[in-house]
UniProtKB/TrEMBL annotation:
Keyword DNA-binding among UniProt keywords: no
Native organism taxonomy: Bacteria, Pseudomonadati, Pseudomonadota, Betaproteobacteria, Burkholderiales
Co-factor requirement: Zn(2+)
Protein name (record): Glutamyl-Q tRNA(Asp) synthetase
Species this protein is from: Ramlibacter algicola
Note describing how the cofactor binds: Binds 1 zinc ion per subunit.
Amino acid sequence: MSLYRGRFAPSPTGPLHAGSMVAALASWIDARAHGGTWLVRIEDVDTPRCVAGADHVILQQLAACGLLPDEPPQWQSQREALYRDALDRLVAAQRAYPCACSRKDIEEALAAQGRPRVRGREAPYPGTCRDGLHGREPRAWRLRVPPGTVAWTDRRLGTQAQDVEREVGDFVLRRADGLWAYQLAVVVDDADQRITHVVRGEDLADNTPRQVLLQRALGVPTPSYLHTPLVLAADGEKLSKQNGAVAIDTAEPLQVLNAAAAVLGLPVQRGTVTDALAAWVRAWPFLQSAP
């Protein structure tokens, strides 16, 4: 039995588009190239952004392209108890604390420190509630980030490093609206599902140092990471539903797969979907890069 366990974890904010299909195909190929198990996890904890029925459309799109998970799909919305237990453990270990700050509070605190917000980037948390709420009502829960640089090696991007305390600060684990933050949910899910290899879009690479810190705080393994190239929109930004990405049309699945494969540097295939997938598994360039 292979020790490799990978996953594709889409958010059901709409059907898969060209960009998300690249990550789906790459994660499937990587699992198959290493004789491993491939899972699908629907990341639906951010309920206000989820579109009713999109999860089932995504599963149908994957199936039409021959990308079938080896175990039944799971939904984050059904895993509340796991997230609550993880937060309780962090609080008991004094690694998490309540925060009363609004976004306006954070921006004002940063301005007072002479650290104006950089446009297009999330404002780093200035640590206002680290030593207590000072009589204010708690809104969220944050991880107490230790000082120092977090270094990790991406199988495609190479050596990466970030000073999370300086660039991000103590980050949110449970939001002010009561929803679980992506960082906590993904770390808990990967650990619970025994994920050994994470293959996802390059736009998520910046999240990795925070997730490594959470993995260390919870005492769970850190997977191997590979971040894939992004599909860009006409304006040069990452292709997304917000800037006009359209749903893939699985009526021609080989065409969809060839487009995704081209982004990954894989050759165009003709014939059946099954034959194309098998050829890409044989041609996968990252086989020797995974432990």
